[in-house]
Amino acid sequence: MIIVEAADPRHPEASALLRASHALMESLFPPEDNFFLDIDALCAPDIRFFAARIQAQIVGTGALALRDGYGEVKSMFVDEAARGRGIADALLRRIEDEARVLALPCLRLETGNLLEAAHKLYARHGFVLRGPFGDYPEAASSVFMEKSL
Asked: Which DSSP symbol is given to 59?
């Protein structure tokens, strides 16, 4: 059973997953096109950080960044050995639930153009393509999506 709950990004298992995610992004995209939040930034008061557990082990992470007029999905990552079990779906549902509790009108996200599994996940959850938002520049390696709540 997958349990998704509020968590501390500094927890050793969570921070290990975040470091793995950051390393993957750095291997796929140039530095100027990497927009991940570091572990300290994920501890800020305007961030809701979640961990997915199977039994006692953290196998996935995701975050909701509270922005002016919307929420932003950040730090979605599932341990490679745990993929294909619905963990990303559970994390995204939890982020959406939190956004609704906070009465946010929509969720937005930026993801890499090479991350096809992520594109499919977000489309399955009702996200649609949109242009850049916030401080994001137009970048060939970025895909921007949004979902109305």
From this structure: E
Compute CA distances 137 → 13, 34, 38, 87, 110, whole Å.
Answer: 32, 11, 19, 30, 11
Residue 97 CA to residue 93 CA, distance in Å, equals 6
Q: Which residue positions in the chain have pLDDT lower than 50?
A: none
Backbone angles phi, psi at 124, to 5 degrees: -60, -30
**CATH 3.30.1330.10 applies to domain 2-105:** no
Query: Interior CA angle at 26 toward 24 and 29, to 5°?
Result: 105
In b/e form, how buried is each residue of 92-115, taking b as 16+ CB within 10 angstroms? bebbbebbeeeebebbbbbbbeeb
Q: How many CB atoms lie within 10 A of CB 46?
A: 11
SS3 state at 82: helix
Q: Which pLDDT score is estimated for 6?
A: 98
pTM above 0.90, yes or no: yes
DSSP category for residue 70: E
d(CA 11, CA 37): 16
Give tens-digit pLDDT for 76-101: 999 999 999 999 999 999 999 999 99
